[in-house]
Design brief:
This protein is of the alpha/beta class and 301 residues long. Among the domains are: 137 residues, Rossmann fold; 71 residues, Up-down Bundle (AhpD-like). It contains 12 helices and 7 strands. A 7-stranded mixed beta sheet has the order 3-2-1-4-5-7-6, with helices on both faces. Helix 1 links the parallel strand 1 and strand 2. Helix 10 packs antiparallel against helix 11 and helix 10 packs parallel to helix 12. The termini are far apart. The relative contact order is 0.08.
């Protein structure tokens, strides 16, 4: 288990008890002073639990000091919103997670854009508010990093509670908001959970690009024009070449045509006909191409 922005190690010590003697809880923090406090608490933790399964590493959450595919779970509490490069943090989470590994993050997020006066406030930045991004942006960053099964749960009541407690930061924010508005109209406490695709879970281990190629082939086989347009756009955004997409479309067409050819061959065997030898790309339903007529819109031989 990995904790991003571990601070004094509180969450790491809780996690250490949960993973037990055969597990390991690792905390990463960029501040040497906080790292020192966390490490000073290890001796007490060992004495209380009898476990020697926690460690703390100095590093930035944008450049985690861990190997690829090395942890089963990542947690973080109100830290990612402070990062100046949030997409990179999500990419790092995906990198260090094992296939099937999970992430559970609690963070501040925006339901809608903050007024400029609040967003530019130093106090708001210190209070984790100005660095927050929209809920939709958080989901997009996690998806683009390659995570799947992304779920978010908003808890705006937490923000209302801060106002009820007369927290100075939120009281100042309220003064900058439009008349009748409150902080929880803009800011929420957000829980984000997701999984890294792979054999460790119920999904597949394909990359997002491969997933889109599979979807393009499936759209062709299913005659779904909106599906094809959507997955074409998604594949383009991921940098998939049109040549690869064309190959996926060809494979989808072959799959689509297979049942058609099979039923024609069965008809040949049962009826002694030769319809199975017809060109698969030709309209074999008759109509004008076959010299017939179309009466009332119906296809007639």
């Amino acid at each position: 288990m990995l904790d991003l922005g571990a601070g004094g190690g509180f969450d790491v010590f809780i996690a250490g008890k949960k993973v037990g003697a055969e597990g390991r809880a690792i905390g990463v923090d960029m501040t040497a002073e906080m790292l020192g406090k966390a490490r000073n608490n290890i001796a007490s933790y060992r004495k209380q639990t009898g476990l020697d399964n926690v460690e703390f590493r100095l590093g930035e959450i944008e450049h985690l000091p861990l190997a690829d595919n090395s942890v089963d779970a990542v947690i973080s509490n109100c830290v990612i919103n402070l990062s100046p490069d949030k997409p990179q943090v999500w990419r790092e989470i995906a990198r260090v997670l094992k296939p099937g590994g999970r992430v559970a993050v609690s963070d501040l997020a925006l339901l809608k854009r903050l007024p400029p006066a609040v967003a530019e406030s130093v106090e708001a930045l210190v209070g984790c508010v100005a660095g927050a991004v929209l809920v939709s942006e958080t989901k997009r960053m996690a998806k683009e990093a390659g995570l799947v099964e992304i779920e978010t749960k908003s808890r705006s009541a937490y923000i209302d509670g801060m106002v009820d407690w007369q927290d100075p930061l939120y009281q100042k924010i309220m003064k900058e908001l439009p008349a009748g508005a409150k902080p929880s109209d803009y800011v929420t406490s957000l829980e984000i959970t997701a999984r890294k695709a792979g054999t460790g879970g119920c999904g597949n281990g394909y990359s997002p690009a491969v997933n889109e190629l599979v979807a393009i082939g499936a759209a062709i086989a299913a005659n779904c024009e909106p599906c094809l347009k959507y997955h074409y756009r998604e594949a383009k955004q991921l940098g998939v070449s049109e040549e690869d997409m064309a190959q996926a479309a060809v494979m989808g067409a072959k799959v689509k045509d297979a049942p058609h050819q099979s039923i024609l061959r069965l008809a040949d065997r049962l009826l002694g006909s030769d319809v199975g030898t017809a060109d698969a790309g030709e309209e074999s339903c008759c109509g004008e191409k076959k010299g017939g007529s179309k009466a009332g819109g119906a296809c007639c031989g």
